[in-house]
Every structure is written in structure tokens, then in C-alpha cells.
Amino acid sequence: MSLTFSETVTGSVTDGVLVVTIDNPPVNAASADMRQGLHAAIDHAAAAPEIAGVVITGAGKIFVGGADIREFGKPMAEPLLPQLVNHIEASGKPVVAAINGAALGGGLEIALGCHHRIASPAAKLGLPEVKLGIVPGAGGTQRLPRLAGVVTAAEMVATGRMVGAEEARRIDVIDAIADSDLIAQAVAAARERAGQPPRRTGECVIASVDQEAFKKMANKVLARARGQDAPEEALRLVRSAAERSIAEGMVDERATFIRLRDSDQAKALRHVFFAERAAAKVDGLDGVEPRPIRTIGIVGLGLMGSGIAVAALDGGYAVIGADMTAEAAQKGRERIVALLDRNVASGRLDADGREKRLARLTTSGRLEDLADADLVIEAVFDDLAVKTELFQRLEGIVRADAVLGTNTSYLDPDVLAAATKRPERVVGLHFFSPANIMRLVEVVNCAKTAPDVLATALAVAKKLGKLPVVSGVTEGFIGNSIFSAYRREAEFLLEDGALPEEIDAAMEAYGFAMGPFAVFDLAGLEIAWARRKRQAATRDPDERYVEIADRLCEAGRFGQKAGRGWYAYPDGKRTVDPEVTALIEAARTKKSIVARRIEAEEIVARLLGAMAAEGDRLLAAKIAQRASDIDLVLINGYGFPAHKGGPMFAAGRV
Ligand code: T1G
Q1: 189, 254, 465, 565: least surrounded by Cβ within 10 Å?
Q2: How far away, in angstroms, is 271 Cα from ligand 1 center?
Q3: In the prediction, which pLDDT does 531 show?
Q4: pLDDT tens digits, residue range 201-241?
Q5: 191: nearest Cα among 71, 328, 53
């Protein structure tokens, strides 16, 4: 007999145990209705003498995806999640969490409030709240350390890292991994514990804290947090769990959660969360099926090509890596193997994973060996003639339905496509270096790209674990267009009176890991110089143009790898160089510009303003489908601080 506790929570009794199922698509979020239903189910069990215990589980592939983020900022209906978790924990009858899939945020907090936890092997568990600029608000910072210890719990909460079932078992967050029917095992576990005093997580004693280990972990976490408030608060709350009662800790936790939830950082990170979901919804692709891709060919196994090859291997594809000669192909293979070895050394990959990837890799100095590829991605030198000739050769090699992807960052892929017999199968796949690490892929929808080819590119990027964002065709697509506007305004600021180190300091204080001039030096100044020289003939003479970067390049100052650029790098250390200051002052004098003091606020406002204005242009030109796509590109490809939401969000355009 099925029992209904609310619209999203039902139950049925098996062997005297009430099995409660949460069914709140798409992610079983802990909405008001879900909380009320679960609360009622616990009350029902308490009042029913024939019921010995309770099992809580989720419908579908997810246990509970967390609190309902869409409820944030709205009046919250009772029971609040911390009250519900306390109610579950206080139950006199054993409550077992049957974790059938992702148990995240409030979802894991519900499981922690249960008296026993069994997970399916595919389950993922974590408290990712800091990724939303908040801290857990239903006891997670107080209960997790009571099971996993303070150091492990603090690292998980302050980074938002998810763990698999194996690791969760190892750190005592769960009690068992189901080796057969999860629900049956959970029902048996509840029966076994019937009539015994429940093991309440909140009453578990915290083992002594290894202060040294805590400090070491905290320094690493805070170094990466760079201006975000939530990670520091998470560390403080978890650490405090060892020094006070759970009740005191939960009062502090809740107050901190509410303060952060309403903060600008949390609003920005919520924007980013929903922006990532929105980016997958591309106009014109409803119901369009991607083409089946099993084998990916990559041409050009240099820095980008070898990174893309590793990303494709990580994504589970068979990979054919090709280059123009057998020697170049062999070098490419060595690069790929070196990247895999680095992943093994850092613990991101085990030896078995390495072997499995190498088993799916073939490399060759013959393009003909790409005949079986379903998709070929070229990552050869960014020259139109070279790429055109390559695509024309590939057309004689690959199947008619194979997709051709170009990794160009600046060339016009429409011109490339037009040089082929089937332009509809050409699409841009613009990866960012290092391609096996960087999440962002600009998927460039060319004038003739067929909808199923675009859908294929998006599906492949998603399977690589990347964040695909669609861009139309314009020089530099979304990212480099915005970055060029950023560079232009940064150089205007130089002429007006600011110095590179002042501009970089302002943007680093704002939240960027590196300011613009430090980034220019890291990327190298010669490519942009070559492009400026190419554009000189067609540049509008009335357009403001800053010559300082040209002077630097003429002086051989090409950046970090040349030992000097906007800065000097004695011993690799970024150092202000009076030679550059003199060059800037000379440029001002040449234009009779009197330098003025420019405060950090103005620097930030002008650079953000320039990016947002360029973003407006891209939206008007339909290069970007929505403003939040632009934010995702700058955050995931250009180091824009996520807790500021991206240039369009920061400028109030979203
Ligand atoms: N609340 C509301 N909507 C959510 C949601 C949530 N927690 N999670 C996902 N969605 C929506 C999402 O916007 C999308 O909507 C659809 O569900 C499918 O999502 C007190 C306060 C669970 C791993 O941070 O990581 O608990 O676009 O495409 O790839 O301490 O969703 O279809 O309209 O991502 O299968 C903490 C967030 C919350 C986890 C599933 N929880 N979610 O991935 O689907 S804060 C999280 C995810 C909290 C407590 C605090 C993933 C997923 P639409 P999707 P997916």
C-alpha cells in the first residue's frame, strides 16, 4: 500500500519498515513540499507501532541534489532543512539513508541526520555549497566532522569536493556500499537496528584534531579561494565543531549561511550555476540528435593537439592522433604520454586508467590513418592556407558524414568551411590551453554548420567534461573579442596615467589571479603584435591607438619567456622595470598627454565597462545567445573571478 506524505514524498511498508521515496524531478531538491513530506513520514513512523524503522531514498539517479536553490531569497516555509534533519536524527526508530545516487548539500545533510547510511556504488557525496558562495546550512559543518574527522571534513566543505562511494566508506561518511539491492539491504539494516538506541551523528564525539595537518590544508584552500568568503567561513565552522556542542555550532552555522546566502558573492555564484545550465540550451537545437561519435581524430599533436587528445581519452573516446611526419607524430605521442604520467603522479589517474587510455590511442604520421574517425579536430598552426589545405586533404580521407572541427582561435572558420565540399559539417571547437585541464570550449556555429553537427560538437564537449559555450563567427569569437576590449582599455589607462603594476594590482584585488599585463606577459606579446601589424593597413586613423606595446616588441620585450615584457623577470620573478615606465612616459609625451592619478576603483570600473560594452556588441550581433554565456566564457577561459559573476553580471546586464 502506497502512502502519500506530500506531492513529492511517498512511502510503502516492507518487512515492517517504512520505505520513503523522494520524487521531486529533476534533482529531488529539498523543496518546501519535500521537507514537509519527509517530516510527515517520520511522524507517521513514530506513531505507527507496526513500523520498526524507516528507509529514505530518492527516485531516479539522484538521492537529493540539495536545498532548492530557486527558493533562495524567498520566504522559507517550515520545516526549514536544519529542523527537518534534527527531526530525523531525533527519531526513536532507526532511520537508514539508502543513497541511490548524488547526495549533495542538503541531501548529504539529510543522510548525515540518519542513523545509518548505505550507498550504491555509483553514489556521489559532497557539500558543494561553497561553490554557491555559501556554507552548509543544515548541520553539515557540524555532523560531517563527527564522522570523517575535522581535517577531512573541513577540506571537503571548504572546497566543495565530491567523493565517490569508496572514499565515503573509507572516511566513515557512509557505513556500507550496497553489493546488491540497495533498498533491500537498507530495510535489513533498519530491522537489525530496531529497538536499539539509534546512533545519532550529532552525539558522536570528534576525535582530536591534528592542528598541523589542519593548518596545512587550510593554507592550501585559502590560497585558492582568493577573495571568496565562504571557504574561510567553512573552515572556521568545521573547526569549531570540536570546541562546542552541536547545538551551538548549528546556530552559528545557520546565521553564517543566511548572511552568505544574501551576499553579493553568493548571488554571483548562483548566477554562474544557472548560467551553466542555461548555456546547454541552444536555439534551434530542440530535438536535434547529435551524430554518434566513437573515434576522434586529432591533427597536429603540439601543445594544444596533445592536450585535446588527452581530454578525448579522458572522455572515453578512441583517439587517432596524426601529424605531418612520423617524427612529429612520435613527438606528439610522447607529449600525450607525458600528460597522462603527470595525471598519474598527481593522483588524478591510476595506472589502470593510464593503460586503458593508451590502449585507445593510436598515433600516425599519415593523414590517411584518420579514415575511421567520426570527428576530426585540427590543431595545426593558426594559418588559413595551412588549415584550408588540410581540410581539403581530409575530405578525400574521412567518411562523408564525419564532422570536421577547427581549433582556430582567430581565423574565420566560415572561410575555412567554404573551401570544403561539405561546409555544413565544419564547426569550431576552440579549446583553451592546457586543453586537458581548462573546462571551457567555445563551440563556433559557422554560417553553414548543420544543426546536428552543432549538436554533435556540444555533446562531445560535454562528454569530455568540458563546459561548451556556443559562439557565432566574429574575429576572436566571444572570449578573445572581450579580451581584446579589455586589453585596449588597459592600454588607454596606461596613456591616461596609470602604470602596469597599478592596473594589475587593482584587478588582482578585484579577484583576478593575474592582472592584464601579467597575463599578456605570460601569453607572450608577439602574436598580438603580428595581428596589430596585419591590421595596421585597415585601422581607422581616427580610432585611438596606443603604441606602447609595439615599442616593447620592437625592443624584443616579448614577455615572460623572453625574460622581459611589461615587467622584467629576474629569476622568473615579476619585477617592475623602470625601462617600461620610461617607455610609457615617452608615449604620453609624444601625444602631449598629461598623466593623472587614476584610482583602483576607476581602473576596475573602466575595464569592466569595456568588457560589458563589447559584450553588448556581441549580443546585438547575435554572436552570443545570452549575456550569461559571455560571463561563463570569461570566468572559465580568462580567469574572471566567478564570485563576481562575470563582466555582464558585474555590470548589471543580467
Ligand atoms: N536546486 C534547484 N534546482 C536545481 C538544483 C538545486 N539544488 N540542482 C539542479 N537544479 C536544476 C538545474 O538548474 C537544472 O534546471 C536541472 O535541475 C538539472 O540540473 C542547506 C543550502 C545534482 C549533480 O550545489 O550539482 O543544499 O536547467 O543540469 O547534470 O546546506 O544539478 O533543467 O531548468 O545540473 O544531472 C547544494 C547542485 C545546494 C548541487 C545533477 N547542492 N546541483 O546534475 O543536472 S545548497 C548543489 C548539481 C544546499 C544546504 C544548502 C547538479 C546535480 P534546468 P543539471 P545533472
Answers
A1: 465
A2: 13
A3: 84
A4: 999 999 889 999 999 999 999 998 889 999 999 999 999 99
A5: 53
